[in-house]
Amino acid sequence: MEISVDKVLMKMADEVSKARSDVEKSKLRERLIAIRTLCDVILDEKSDTDRSTPQVTQTVYHSPVTQKTVKLVDEGGNGDSLFDF
Question: Tell me: the pLDDT tens digits for 32-81?
Fold first, then answer.
């Protein structure tokens, strides 16, 4: 669900007007936190639309490569293992 920026700004204006009339410091602080949260909603929505631009990805398929095993003949070796001395 997408929230329009105008609706958030209207809610912010409502919170600002309520904050002006609040005498208690704790209530004023709550209103200011609500206003900051509404600002974050707008800013996050803007950054999400920036990130949601479609990105083109390219998939590269590689054909399997077959390798031939070449057995080296060494007169000094004792067997097939690398550790055979």
Answer: 999 999 999 889 876 666 554 445 555 555 556 666 666 666 666 666 67
In degrees, to the nearest 5, what angle opens at C-alpha 34 toward C-alphas 2 and 11? 50
Q: Over the chain, what HEC string results?
A: CCCCHHHHHHHHHHHHHHHHHCCCHHHHHHHHHHHHHHHHHHHHHHHHHHHCCCCCCCCCCCCCCCCCCCCCCCCCCCCCCCCCC
How far apart (Å, rounded) are the C-alpha atoms in residues 20 and 18?
5
Where exactly are the structural domains of the chain?
5-51
pTM here is 0.51
- Among 18, 49, 21, which Cα is nearest to 35's? 18
Residue with tokens 């004792």, as numbered in its chain? 78
